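[Automated response] Your request has been received and processed.

Submitted sequence:
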Amino acid sequence: LLGMGRGEEAVGVAKRAQELDPVSPSVQTSLAWSLFLMRRNEESAAECKRALELYPDFIPAHQLLGIVYGEMNDGAAALTEFSEAEALERDNPVTLMLMMYELARSGKKAEARQALQGALARPGSLVVPDYYIAAAWTEIGDKAKAMESLKRAEQHHSNWLIYLPFDPRFDGLRSDPAFRAAFQKAGAPKCCA
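Generated structure:
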């Protein structure tokens, strides 16, 4: 449904899945993700917390809660969640990428750029979706590298791209003509126009 631009319906279906399986951390976090994409951050944070009450070691819920806290301008809480995820699984490339994103979001763009360049330059560098790399470059303010990463994601037929019309982490690209030409689809959700 998200891929079809039907975000509110996606939230409704995720809520129904939660009713059917109220103790699944995956279902809980999927609902939280849908709420985040619809910019309902308070509700998304509550769902992440509910998942973590049941499964304190569920890394995706910590990662998403960190993203949501960042969007809510609570960088300290975001980094706490990312640190918790990192403690549960050392060197998780998604967590590391999210930490770089939050570093940039909190105003430390030069430090985030250096960390990202270093991580990507290492032999056998990060195995992380290009979508996450693009989000970090977007927040750093390097639109060209963000676009390169998104185009790589498209070449690899990344399923992450279905979230692009909704994801607030890409708001910094939405006014860019190259982004609009490459990724603005007809009938895109209002949040992306």
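Summary generated for your ticket: Residues 28 and 51 are 6 Å apart (CA to CA). Residues 7-20 form the longest helix (14 residues).
If you did not submit this request, please reply to this message.
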